[in-house]
Structures are given as structure tokens and as C-alpha cells.
């Protein structure tokens, strides 16, 4: 038997060493990867987390802008984003195609609904990745965002395969052109460095308060499987989105609408080059309405091409004869007003310069009171010579001219008070040469209307964090100074009222039925843009009016200016300004429930503290004081009252008394919107208020005890709907009323 012998095979041994070494190397690598926290500078835990971690962004709403009564002026609202699924793999195993099968047809139809050319849509639908593959889905940039619900429905009806919608938000301005140069607008912009979009304010309050209005997005973080589904027992980290702050304005939507409608009518009829108007509360400085023409709709910015400036604060004007109000106030307060003294009207010479009255020849020898009623320029010049230019300019400074009002808006300018030459001082007395802003006129007029106390104008009432209710900013009325005494203010109001009531007054067109108006017209020359003097002709003036009502206790002041209106042959410049002033002032006073019969003499009563007292006894006491108590509840002990203790209210005013128990509805007939809002807040009842103005009907009749939460619908009508329009009369010969 042959013995087997071991033969050493060198090749096999080398193969063993090679593969054994590779195995050991691989084994060592696996152990190292399992135990090491970092390899080649990369964190393995971070790489794994990045592969399986998912983060979903939570959008934050931009803050709302609201009026003084919580009516929305601007807010984010539901919209849609257009998305197209273009990869045919999406339709695998599907009964119907769920991707875009026909890009050409789809592009042609979509071009009818979004602002993008058909060829551009087709290019997006057929786009390829860098490696030549087809993406799963595509979007259409800004044109495919902010799709309205109606447009979404219309596209859905086309039944285009692969076209889907994702929920989105867009900035919504429900009132159209509404104080547009004040509110401004915001648009969505793509952010640098990523594909996200963000709403950014570009003008007005949207721009000025962009930081406060902008919210902070949130997120949801979690671990997922390869398909993106949440893993069992995986922790989900949620960072809630923080919505932007809400801005509450001093504007009153109802008064603003009165103003917008009146200005639109005059704009359409007279086609002026521009118009500017402000309505304010003289007791607080709150701006209740402001507008200008041309204007625009913030939703589409159509009409914005001509002017981005807020004309009330960012542009200066030569005010014309509205400045005579403050020349008069300076003379009265400094003891230099002699109403019955006389002067020679017609012309007045300063060195080598001659100024003339607006009728060129004057009215002969007249009193200073008559001169003011006639709006005599020479009368102002004589008054300046009596009181002295130093005194006059001191009062202009007290009234805030040549200075910013400090209103809570950017871009305010100061205007210029000319005083270098003697002629400048004379022309400034009647508003020519020197420049001011409309807001400066409003601020100065608050001193005349508010018994000498000049109030700083403001438009922001408060800024509130909507998630916590915290008030971030709370504006309060600010007294800027007391340029004149209360006695002077009252005397000036009476003189201003005479320009409306006197047979020779220039403001007779501004009289209201039932309310006494005080104010001053203005007819200012307009300087040529190239500096070559002034335009001429009655269609080339800035016509204005600065007035208040009621005279005895002014509740509203208003400035309206109309530049270069197209006047008829027999029309004067006060006609377009009066059309706006009368409509807005009368409707606003009625909206504020200011009864014309009580205007002449307002009797005020200071309220006592009725809380914890018997409702029955309080009702009797209030009735005896000439007030109207409204009970909210069954009676018994009063737990809340409105207005509060110590406030002075006019005779005939409503006082709300709240008690516990079932609420029985009163008759709301004739109630103002303000009283309805107060009743709704105190009662807590589900009252739905429809319309504006005064209550016309209620869905639940009076004396009904409310037992459930069914809504109570209360419908209101505006004064324009409730009161027949007045026809302005002329005399039998059709004589044109005197103009300034």
C-alpha cells in the first residue's frame, strides 16, 4: 500500500492568505463602524438621522389688520397651490392615469386659468432632471400659487389627469380700494437660497409693520422608514407656528366707506387730477378715515402706477385760505382781533409787490369780520400788520406747522414756512407760498375744535399677539400742546360758522340740515412744475375745505382737497369739495347717533356707580336723568354697567345694565352699529350683525326670552339707504354762490 504524502501548494496558500486577509479587514471594518461615532470626518449618527429624519414645516399666518370695530381690513385666507404629477410611474397599477398624459393639452387648458403662457407651462410639464430622468411632480412658481377657490373648481371641472392642488394662503383685502395708500399691500416672494415663499409687505402699514405682522413658521420632526412613514414608537417633536401680530386701527370701516363712495362719485363726475381727504376725532386725534384719488385695489395693485405716496403726510401743498383759520386764531388769542373795525379791501401793497382779493376789486370799506366771511386776502394782510409777523409765526409754530405731527406712519414731511421776505409773511397769512401737509391742518384744527387742546393724530390703536391676547402696543391720545385758549377756540368756531350761515359767506354750500357746521374754504394756486409761476383758470386750482360739526361740541373734523377738477361753465370750485364733505359729515354724524335736535345745546350727565345696586332702582334713576337704561338679564343686582362710572353722557343716551339670569331681547329698531356691538359684547348672545348704519330688522322679536344658542340676525341699513338724498338748491336766477 502506497503512503499518501502532503504536497504544499503555494498558489492555494496565497489565495487563502488573500481572502482571509480581506475577510479580516471587512470584519474589522464592520466592528469599527458599529463602535465608532465618526468615520472619515462624518458623524455616522448624523448621517443616519439625516436619512430617516423627517421635518414637516407648519405655516404661520400673517397678522390681520382690523378697524376700530374688529372689521377685517387685511388677512390671510385659504388659497391653493397648483401641482402637476408628471412621472408615469405614479399611474402604475392605477385604474385611471394620475399623471399628466398629454402635456400639450394640459398646458393649453391651464393657460386659460393662470397667468403663464402656454409654451412656458408646456416647458415645465416636460422638464427633465439633470440625469435625464422625469421628476415626480412639478410646480408653476408664483403663477401657480394663491389660486382662488373658484379657479380651483373651474380647473377641477376640466378633469385633467395629474393636476392636483395643495392648500395655501394668500393675502386678502375684502374691501377693495379702502384707505389703500395707508394700508398698502403685501406680496409673496421666493426666498434666496431655498424654494420657500414668504409674504412680505411692500407699501403702507403692510411694509412699516412687516416685522410685527410676519409670523414664525413651526415644524413637526420625527423618524420615518424609507417611504417616509412614521416609525412605531418614534418620538414626534412639534414646534407650533406663531402667527403674526394683529394690528387694530383707529379707522372706522363705516366712515371710511362713506368717504370712499363720496370720493369715487366726485372723481367720476369731475375727473380731477387728484383728491385727498381725512376725517378725525378732534377730542382724541384718532384718524377715522383717510383716502386719496387716484387709488388702487391692494389685491391686484391696478391704479398704483401713478403715485405711491400717502398724500396726507408725504406730500406738501400750498393750503390756500384754509390757513386763514390759524391767522384768525393768532389774532384773537393775541388780543389783535377787531371784528367791527374796518379796512379798505381790494388790494394791499408790500414794498413793490401788490396782492389782491380773489375778486380782484374787493368789496370797498368793510369790517374785519366781513373780510373773513368774504375770505379777503387783504384783510389777512391788514391783520398781520396789526399783530406783527413775529407774533404770527410764533402761533404757526404753536400750531405745529413746519414740524412733523409725529403720526405713527413713516415718510412724514414738514413743509416750509417762508419768512425771508416781507411778501412771504403776507402771503403765508392766506396760505400761499408756504407749504403744509393735510395732516398738519387736521392736527392744528383739533385745537380749534377741542377748546384749545391740540391732539396728535394717530392711526394705530393697538397691536395684539393673537395667540396670547397680550397687547404689544397700546396707543393713547396725546396732547401736543395748547396753542390757544378755550375762549379763543370757541370764538374762532363761531366766526368759522358765520362763513357758512352768513349771506356773504364763502362756505354756504357746506351747510348741513340739522347740524351747524364751522369751517373755511380754500382756493390755492398751483405752482408750475418747472418753477415758472402758477397755473391760471378755474380748472387749475386746488379747492379745499377744512371744517367741523357740530359747532357747539365738535365730534368730527374733516379736510377735503380736490386738485384741478373739470368744472362746468356755471360751477364753482366748492361744488366738488362740498359734495364730499356734506355726504361724509352728515352720514357720519347720524352713524354716531348724534341727534340733530340736540345739537344746539348738549346737556351732559355724569354717570354714578350702579354696580351691586338694584337694577329696578337704577332704571328709575336713569330715566329721571333723561337717559335710556337697557337691561341685560332678569334683574336684581347689577354686575356690570356701560358706560362706566364717572363718564359724562348726553341726555337721551343709552346706558346698559347687566344682571344675572335669562336675557329678554329689547327692540333694536333704530340702534346704531356701535350700540349693537356693545350689546353683543355684554350679553354674550350669538348675534349676527349684517350691514352697517342703523338697525332695520331683527330675526327674533322683542320681549323674547333667549333660551338656546340659535343665532339672532340683526340687519342694518346705512344712512344713505335710510335717508333720501337731498337736492342742492340754487336761487331762481341760478346765480353761482360766492367762491373763495
Automatic annotation (TrEMBL):
<dbReference type="Pfam" id="PF03793">
    <property type="entry name" value="PASTA"/>
</dbReference>
<dbReference type="GO" id="GO:0071555">
    <property type="term" value="P:cell wall organization"/>
</dbReference>
<dbReference type="GO" id="GO:0005886">
    <property type="term" value="C:plasma membrane"/>
</dbReference>
<dbReference type="InterPro" id="IPR012338">
    <property type="entry name" value="Beta-lactam/transpept-like"/>
</dbReference>
<dbReference type="InterPro" id="IPR005543">
    <property type="entry name" value="PASTA_dom"/>
</dbReference>
<comment type="similarity">
    <text>Belongs to the transpeptidase family.</text>
</comment>
<dbReference type="InterPro" id="IPR050515">
    <property type="entry name" value="Beta-lactam/transpept"/>
</dbReference>
<dbReference type="Pfam" id="PF00905">
    <property type="entry name" value="Transpeptidase"/>
</dbReference>
<dbReference type="InterPro" id="IPR001460">
    <property type="entry name" value="PCN-bd_Tpept"/>
</dbReference>
<keyword id="KW-0812">Transmembrane</keyword>
<keyword id="KW-1133">Transmembrane helix</keyword>
<feature type="domain" description="PASTA">
    <location>
        <begin position="598"/>
        <end position="661"/>
    </location>
</feature>
<keyword id="KW-0472">Membrane</keyword>
<dbReference type="Pfam" id="PF03717">
    <property type="entry name" value="PBP_dimer"/>
</dbReference>
<protein>
    <submittedName>
        <fullName>Penicillin-binding protein</fullName>
    </submittedName>
</protein>
<dbReference type="InterPro" id="IPR036138">
    <property type="entry name" value="PBP_dimer_sf"/>
</dbReference>
<feature type="compositionally biased region" description="Acidic residues">
    <location>
        <begin position="728"/>
        <end position="740"/>
    </location>
</feature>
<dbReference type="InterPro" id="IPR005311">
    <property type="entry name" value="PBP_dimer"/>
</dbReference>
<feature type="region of interest" description="Disordered">
    <location>
        <begin position="721"/>
        <end position="740"/>
    </location>
</feature>
<dbReference type="GO" id="GO:0008658">
    <property type="term" value="F:penicillin binding"/>
</dbReference>
<feature type="transmembrane region" description="Helical">
    <location>
        <begin position="12"/>
        <end position="31"/>
    </location>
</feature>
Amino acid at each position: 500500500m502506497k503512503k499518501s504524502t502532503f504536497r504544499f501548494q503555494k498558489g492555494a496558500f496565497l489565495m487563502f492568505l488573500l481572502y482571509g486577509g480581506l475577510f479580516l479587514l471587512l470584519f474589522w471594518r464592520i466592528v469599527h463602524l458599529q463602535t465608532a461615532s465618526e468615520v472619515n470626518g462624518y458623524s455616522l449618527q448624523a448621517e443616519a438621522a439625516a436619512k430617516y429624519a423627517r421635518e414637516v414645516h407648519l405655516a404661520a399666518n400673517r397678522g390681520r389688520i382690523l378697524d376700530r370695530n374688529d372689521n377685517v381690513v387685511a388677512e390671510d385666507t385659504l388659497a391653493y397651490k397648483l401641482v402637476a404629477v408628471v412621472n408615469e410611474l405614479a399611474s402604475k397599477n392605477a385604474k385611471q392615469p394620475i399623471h399628466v398624459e398629454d402635456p400639450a393639452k394640459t398646458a393649453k387648458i391651464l393657460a386659460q386659468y393662470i397667468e403663464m403662457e402656454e409654451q412656458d407651462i408646456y416647458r415645465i410639464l416636460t422638464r427633465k432632471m439633470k440625469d435625464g430622468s422625469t421628476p415626480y411632480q412639478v410646480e408653476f412658481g408664483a403663477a401657480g400659487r394663491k389660486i382662488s377657490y373658484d379657479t380651483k373648481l373651474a380647473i377641477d371641472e376640466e378633469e385633467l389627469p395629474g393636476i392636483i392642488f395643495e392648500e395655501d394662503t394668500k393675502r386678502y383685502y375684502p374691501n377693495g380700494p379702502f384707505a389703500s395708500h395707508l394700508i398698502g399691500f403685501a406680496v409673496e416672494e421666493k426666498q434666496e437660497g431655498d424654494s420657500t415663499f414668504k409674504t412680505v409687505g411692500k407699501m403702507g402699514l403692510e411694509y412699516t409693520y412687516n416685522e410685527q405682522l410676519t409670523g414664525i413658521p413651526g415644524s413637526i420632526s420625527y423618524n420615518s422608514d424609507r417611504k417616509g412613514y412614521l416609525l412605531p414608537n418614534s418620538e414626534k417633536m412639534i414646534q407650533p407656528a406663531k402667527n403674526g401680530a394683529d394690528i387694530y386701527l383707529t379707522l372706522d370701516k363705516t366712515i371710511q366707506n362713506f368717504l370712499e363712495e363720496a370720493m369715487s362719485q366726485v372723481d367720476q363726475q369731475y375727473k380731477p387730477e387728484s383728491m385727498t381727504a381725512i376725517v378725525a376725532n378732534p377730542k382724541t386725534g384718532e384718524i377715522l378715515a383717510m383716502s386719496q384719488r387716484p387709488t388702487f385695489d391692494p389685491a391686484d395693485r391696478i391704479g398704483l402706477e401713478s403715485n405711491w405716496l400717502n398724500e396726507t403726510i408725504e406730500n406738501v401743498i400750498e393750503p390756500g385760505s384754509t390757513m386763514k383759520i390759524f391767522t384768525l386764531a393768532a389774532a384773537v388769542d393775541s388780543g389783535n382781533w377787531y371784528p367791527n373795525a374796518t379796512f379798505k379791501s381790494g388790494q394791499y401793497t408790500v414794498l413793490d409787490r401788490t396782492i389782491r382779493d380773489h375778486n380782484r376789486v374787493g368789496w370797498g370799506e368793510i369790517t374785519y369780520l366781513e373780510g373773513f366771511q368774504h375770505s379777503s386776502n387783504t384783510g389777512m394782510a391788514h391783520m398781520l400788520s396789526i399783530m406783527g409777523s413775529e407774533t404770527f409765526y410764533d402761533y404757526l409754530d404753536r400750531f405745529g406747522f413746519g414740524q412733523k405731527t409725529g403720526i405713527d406712519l413713516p415718510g412724514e414731511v414738514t413743509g416750509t414756512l417762508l419768512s425771508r421776505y416781507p411778501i412771504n409773511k403776507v402771503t403765508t397769512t392766506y396760505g400761499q407760498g408756504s407749504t403744509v401737509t393735510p395732516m398738519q391742518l387736521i392736527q392744528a384744527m383739533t385745537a380749534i375744535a377741542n377748546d384749545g387742546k391740540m391732539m396728535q393724530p394717530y392711526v394705530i390703536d393697538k397691536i395684539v399677539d393673537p395667540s396670547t391676547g397680550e397687547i404689544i402696543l397700546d396707543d393713547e391720545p396725546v396732547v401736543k400742546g395748547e396753542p390757544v385758549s378755550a375762549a379763543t377756540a370757541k370764538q374762532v368756531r363761531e366766526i368759522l360758522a358765520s362763513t357758512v350761515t352768513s349771506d356773504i359767506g364763502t362756505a354756504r354750500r357746506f351747510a348741513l340740515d340739522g347740524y351747524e357746521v364751522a369751517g373755511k374754504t380754500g382756493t390755492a394756486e398751483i405752482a408750475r412744475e418747472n418753477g415758472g409761476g402758477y397755473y391760471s383758470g378755474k380748472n387749475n386750482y386746488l379747492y379745499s375745505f377744512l371744517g367741523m360739526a357740530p359747532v357747539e361740541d365738535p365730534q368730527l373734523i374733516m379736510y377735503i382737497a380736490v386738485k384741478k377738477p373739470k368744472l362746468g361753465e356755471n360751477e364753482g370750485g366748492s361744488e366738488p369739495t362740498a359734495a364730499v364733505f356734506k355726504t361724509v359729515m352728515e352720514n357720519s354724524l347720524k352713524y354716531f347717533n348724534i341727534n340733530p335736535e340736540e345739537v344746539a345745546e348738549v346737556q351732559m350727565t355724569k354717570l354714578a356707580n350702579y354696580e351691586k345696586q338694584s337694577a329696578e332702582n337704577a332704571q328709575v334713576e336713569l330715566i329721571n336723568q333723561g337717559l335710556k337704561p337697557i337691561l341685560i338679564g332678569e334683574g336684581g343686582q347689577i354686575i356690570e354697567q356701560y358706560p362706566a362710572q364717572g363718564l359724562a353722557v348726553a341726555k337721551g343716551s343709552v346706558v346698559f345694565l347687566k344682571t344675572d339670569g335669562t336675557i329678554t331681547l329689547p327692540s333694536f329698531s333704530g340702534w346704531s352699529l356701535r350700540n349693537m356691538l356693545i350689546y353683543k359684547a355684554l350679553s354674550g348672545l350669538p348675534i349676527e350683525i349684517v350691514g352697517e348704519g342703523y338697525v332695520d330688522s331683527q330675526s327674533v322679536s322683542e320681549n323674547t326670552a333667549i333660551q338656546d344658542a340659535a343665532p339672532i340676525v340683526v340687519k342694518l341699513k346705512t344712512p344713505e339707504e335710510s335717508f333720501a338724498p337731498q337736492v342742492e338748491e340754487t336761487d331762481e336766477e341760478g346765480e353761482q354762490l360766492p367762491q373763495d
